[in-house]
Automatic annotation (TrEMBL):
Pfam families: CHCH (PF06747)
Keywords per UniProt: Disulfide bond
Feature: compositional bias, Basic and acidic residues: 1-13
Lineage: Eukaryota, Fungi, Dikarya, Ascomycota, Pezizomycotina
Chain intervals for the UniProt region annotation (Disordered): 1-24
GO BP: any one term: mitochondrial respiratory chain complex IV assembly
One cellular component term from this protein's GO annotations in UniProt: mitochondrial intermembrane space
Alphabetized InterPro entries for the sequence: CHCH (IPR010625), Coa4-like (IPR039870)
PROSITE patterns: CHCH
Protein name per the record: CHCH domain-containing protein
Domain CHCH: from-to ranges: 32-65
Length: 77
């Protein structure tokens, strides 16, 4: 195989970017990134939000402690 053909056959290397993207920055700015991660991990593992009530409550309490309900104009129903 020629050098040119060999290079064309290889896929582009995946860029390993550990910098937080815009979504991550938004989550971090809430002050509840750890609670968000726990909630997402629970759902990923159990595939049922109802099985993650404790994690959801921890996230809600963090959200309120950080005054994110005021910042985002969310309302309790």
């Amino acid at each position: 195989m020629s050098k040119t053909a060999e290079n064309e056959a290889r896929p582009d290397p995946v860029e390993d970017d550990d910098e937080p993207d815009e979504w991550d920055q938004r989550i971090f700015s809430t002050g509840c990134a750890d609670e968000n991660t726990s909630l997402n991990d629970c759902f990923r593992e159990k595939k049922d939000w109802r099985a993650c009530k404790d994690e959801m409550e921890a996230f809600k309490q963090c959200w309120k402690r950080q005054d994110n309900d005021v910042r985002t104009s969310s309302k309790d129903v």
